[in-house]
Amino acid sequence: SHIVLTVEFKINLLRPGKGARLRCRSDVMKPGRRFSIAESSVFASDSAGEKLIAKAIVTLAVVEK
Q1: Alpha-carbon dihedral of residues 42, 46, 47, 52, nearest 10 degrees?
Q2: Average confidence (pLDDT) over 39-60
Q3: How far apart are the C-alpha atoms of 52 and 49, rounded to whole Å?
């Protein structure tokens, strides 16, 4: 059995989270046996369209219990 621990993360807050709806899209950029790297983008949308409001990148360690 394994657990996942956060090694580091960086968040860029690009603009205020104003809008009727928030959407987050996350992808694993590099899956690995010991470390994995994931990226997330958060978007705010309203009648004018969708804007990127935040971006994050996370390094995760996979360790045995």
Answers
A1: -30
A2: 97
A3: 10
What six digits make up the tokens of 59?
A: 């390094």
Q: What percent of the chain has pLDDT over 90?
A: 92
- 31 close to 51: Cβ distance less than 8 angstroms: no
| Count of domains for the chain | 1
Q: Which two tokens stand for residue 60?
A: 């995760």
DSSP 18: -
CATH of the domain at 39: 3.10.129.10
Q: What is the domain range of residue 57?
A: 2-64
Q: What is the tens place of the pLDDT at every residue in 13-29?
A: 999 999 999 999 999 99
